[in-house]
Specification:
Rossmann fold
Protein backbone atom coordinates (compact mmCIF):
# COMPACT_ATOMS: atom_id res chain seq x y z
CA UNK A 1 0.00 0.00 0.00
CA UNK A 2 1.28 3.47 -0.82
CA UNK A 3 0.01 6.96 -1.45
CA UNK A 4 1.58 9.77 -3.38
CA UNK A 5 0.31 13.35 -3.23
CA UNK A 6 1.40 16.56 -4.88
CA UNK A 7 -0.17 19.97 -4.64
CA UNK A 8 -1.91 20.17 -1.28
CA UNK A 9 -5.25 21.94 -1.70
CA UNK A 10 -8.19 23.03 0.37
CA UNK A 11 -8.65 24.30 3.88
CA UNK A 12 -9.69 22.89 7.21
CA UNK A 13 -13.22 21.62 6.87
CA UNK A 14 -16.01 19.77 8.61
CA UNK A 15 -14.97 16.26 7.56
CA UNK A 16 -13.95 13.74 10.24
CA UNK A 17 -10.50 14.49 11.77
CA UNK A 18 -8.67 11.69 9.94
CA UNK A 19 -9.77 13.08 6.55
CA UNK A 20 -9.30 16.81 7.13
CA UNK A 21 -6.80 18.61 4.99
CA UNK A 22 -3.82 20.20 6.72
CA UNK A 23 -3.89 23.61 4.99
CA UNK A 24 -4.67 26.40 7.40
CA UNK A 25 -3.76 29.42 5.25
CA UNK A 26 -1.99 30.55 2.13
CA UNK A 27 -1.47 34.07 0.79
CA UNK A 28 -3.81 35.36 -1.90
CA UNK A 29 -0.95 35.71 -4.37
CA UNK A 30 1.70 33.31 -5.56
CA UNK A 31 5.07 33.94 -3.95
CA UNK A 32 8.66 33.27 -4.89
CA UNK A 33 10.19 31.22 -2.12
CA UNK A 34 13.15 28.98 -1.46
CA UNK A 35 12.75 25.29 -0.68
CA UNK A 36 15.60 23.60 1.14
CA UNK A 37 16.14 20.06 2.34
CA UNK A 38 16.54 19.70 6.10
CA UNK A 39 20.13 18.86 7.04
CA UNK A 40 18.93 15.89 9.10
CA UNK A 41 17.14 14.47 6.06
CA UNK A 42 20.15 14.65 3.73
CA UNK A 43 20.52 10.86 3.64
CA UNK A 44 16.86 10.19 2.79
CA UNK A 45 16.61 8.86 -0.79
CA UNK A 46 13.99 11.47 -1.76
CA UNK A 47 16.19 14.50 -0.99
CA UNK A 48 19.67 12.98 -1.11
CA UNK A 49 21.91 15.35 -3.09
CA UNK A 50 19.14 17.96 -3.41
CA UNK A 51 20.23 21.60 -3.34
CA UNK A 52 18.02 24.56 -2.32
CA UNK A 53 15.85 25.95 -5.13
CA UNK A 54 13.27 28.66 -5.83
CA UNK A 55 9.63 28.11 -6.80
CA UNK A 56 6.83 30.51 -7.66
CA UNK A 57 3.65 29.09 -6.25
CA UNK A 58 1.16 29.18 -3.43
CA UNK A 59 2.85 28.77 -0.09
CA UNK A 60 0.97 26.87 2.58
CA UNK A 61 0.77 27.36 6.32
CA UNK A 62 -0.01 23.87 7.59
CA UNK A 63 -1.09 21.85 10.57
CA UNK A 64 1.27 18.89 10.48
CA UNK A 65 0.94 15.33 11.62
CA UNK A 66 3.66 14.83 14.27
CA UNK A 67 4.35 11.37 12.79
CA UNK A 68 5.40 12.93 9.46
CA UNK A 69 9.09 12.89 8.56
CA UNK A 70 9.76 16.36 7.16
CA UNK A 71 12.33 16.34 4.37
CA UNK A 72 12.22 19.88 2.93
CA UNK A 73 11.04 23.23 4.28
CA UNK A 74 10.56 26.89 3.41
CA UNK A 75 10.41 30.13 5.37
CA UNK A 76 6.88 31.50 5.11
CA UNK A 77 6.90 34.78 3.20
CA UNK A 78 5.40 38.02 4.47
CA UNK A 79 1.64 38.08 3.99
CA UNK A 80 -0.27 41.33 4.63
CA UNK A 81 -3.23 39.34 5.99
CA UNK A 82 -1.06 37.52 8.56
CA UNK A 83 2.24 39.34 9.14
CA UNK A 84 2.84 37.27 12.29
CA UNK A 85 3.48 34.19 10.11
CA UNK A 86 6.46 35.72 8.28
CA UNK A 87 9.64 33.63 8.50
CA UNK A 88 7.87 30.67 10.11
CA UNK A 89 9.59 27.49 8.94
CA UNK A 90 6.98 25.37 7.13
CA UNK A 91 7.26 21.85 5.75
CA UNK A 92 7.06 21.52 1.97
CA UNK A 93 7.84 17.83 1.49
CA UNK A 94 7.37 14.97 3.91
CA UNK A 95 6.79 11.25 4.24
CA UNK A 96 4.85 9.10 6.62
CA UNK A 97 4.41 5.41 7.20
CA UNK A 98 0.84 4.18 7.42
CA UNK A 99 0.75 0.57 8.55
CA UNK A 100 2.70 -1.31 5.91
CA UNK A 101 2.23 1.57 3.47
CA UNK A 102 4.31 4.60 2.65
CA UNK A 103 3.02 8.11 2.01
CA UNK A 104 4.94 10.82 0.12
CA UNK A 105 3.60 14.39 0.00
CA UNK A 106 4.90 17.60 -1.48
CA UNK A 107 3.06 20.91 -1.50
CA UNK A 108 4.83 21.83 -4.74
CA UNK A 109 2.92 21.17 -7.93
CA UNK A 110 0.43 23.98 -8.29
CA UNK A 111 1.63 24.81 -11.79
CA UNK A 112 3.47 23.06 -14.61
CA UNK A 113 6.45 25.45 -14.52
CA UNK A 114 7.36 24.24 -11.03
CA UNK A 115 7.34 20.62 -12.19
CA UNK A 116 9.99 21.56 -14.76
CA UNK A 117 12.46 22.69 -12.07
CA UNK A 118 15.09 19.90 -11.97
CA UNK A 119 15.05 19.62 -8.16
CA UNK A 120 11.24 19.41 -8.07
CA UNK A 121 11.17 16.79 -10.82
CA UNK A 122 13.84 14.78 -8.98
CA UNK A 123 12.10 15.04 -5.62
CA UNK A 124 8.70 13.97 -7.01
CA UNK A 125 10.17 11.12 -9.06
CA UNK A 126 12.20 9.87 -6.10
CA UNK A 127 9.20 10.33 -3.81
CA UNK A 128 6.99 8.19 -6.04
CA UNK A 129 9.69 5.54 -6.29
CA UNK A 130 10.15 5.55 -2.51
CA UNK A 131 6.40 5.34 -1.80
CA UNK A 132 5.86 2.49 -4.25
CA UNK A 133 9.10 0.71 -3.31
CA UNK A 134 10.06 0.78 -6.97
CA UNK A 135 13.44 -0.75 -7.81
CA UNK A 136 13.90 2.08 -10.36
CA UNK A 137 16.35 4.69 -9.11
CA UNK A 138 15.63 8.04 -10.80
CA UNK A 139 18.35 10.50 -11.75
CA UNK A 140 19.33 13.12 -9.17
CA UNK A 141 18.96 16.87 -9.62
Amino acid sequence: MSAVGTGVTGAMDARPPRTRRPVVHHPREHSIYQVRPLPGAAGHPIVEGLTPFLVTSEQYYLHMDPAAEVLAVTDYVADPDHPELARTVMPVTWTRSWGAGRVFVTAIGHNLANLEIPQVHSMITKGMSWATRSPHTPNSA
